[in-house]
From TrEMBL:
<dbReference type="Pfam" id="PF07661">
    <property type="entry name" value="MORN_2"/>
</dbReference>
<dbReference type="InterPro" id="IPR011652">
    <property type="entry name" value="MORN_2"/>
</dbReference>
<protein>
    <submittedName>
        <fullName>Toxin-antitoxin system YwqK family antitoxin</fullName>
    </submittedName>
</protein>
<feature type="region of interest" description="Disordered">
    <location>
        <begin position="1"/>
        <end position="20"/>
    </location>
</feature>
């Protein structure tokens, strides 16, 4: 029966500590520099498994990363040094899969996109800083299906010259077809 063996490695101001079981990393692995955390990783049978975290130099979490069998699998979140959520994205077997959202520094949604097996698939949306839709396009298997539609920061669609529709025309389009907002 194999027993656990402590691992403590030092290199300058860096320190790595964890456990080996039968020669493979097992359980939490902590990496520090100058006594500040750089990463808390979780291993099972020598592979990354479970939630791991990396840290900015100021000690705040930079990323929360779900692993399964050494590959990202689940909802990953990425943060600025100030602690603001910058991006969250779904992964499956190491590939982007599902919804991915990117945020402005104030927390407002900047982009929303969908992935299937590592390629963009579905609706892609980019937003103005005020929360209004700026661009919308449709993708299938990584290929753009349409030219997409651009929008002014007040929500009005842009014409082929990049100019917003007149407010009267926009109002009329919305009044005649309420589902077009």
């Amino acid at each position: 029966m194999a027993k656990n063996q402590a691992v403590n490695l030092h290199s300058g101001d860096a320190h790595l500590s964890g456990q080996l079981h039968a020669g493979q990393l097992e359980g939490p692995l902590r990496i520090e520099e100058n006594r500040r955390p750089l990463a808390n990783l979780n291993y099972s049978s020598g592979q990354l498994n479970g939630m791991s975290q990396t840290y900015h130099a100021n000690g705040r979490v930079s990323a929360q990363l779900p692993y399964k069998a050494d590959k990202l699998d689940g909802q990953a979140s990425f943060y600025s040094p100030e602690g603001q959520l910058q991006r969250k994205a779904g992964y499956r077997q190491g590939l982007l899969h599902g919804e991915a959202a990117t945020y402005y520094p104030d927390g407002q949604l900047a982009e929303l996109e969908s992935y299937r097996n590592g390629v963009r698939d579905g609706v892609y949306q980019r937003f103005h800083g005020n929360g209004k839709l700026a661009h919308k396009a449709q993708y299938l298997n990584g290929q753009r299906l349409d030219q997409g539609q651009q929008f002014a920061n007040d929500g009005r669609p842009l014409d082929s010259d990049g100019k917003p529709l007149s407010k009267l025309r926009w109002w009329w389009m919305n009044a005649a077809s309420p589902g077009n907002t």
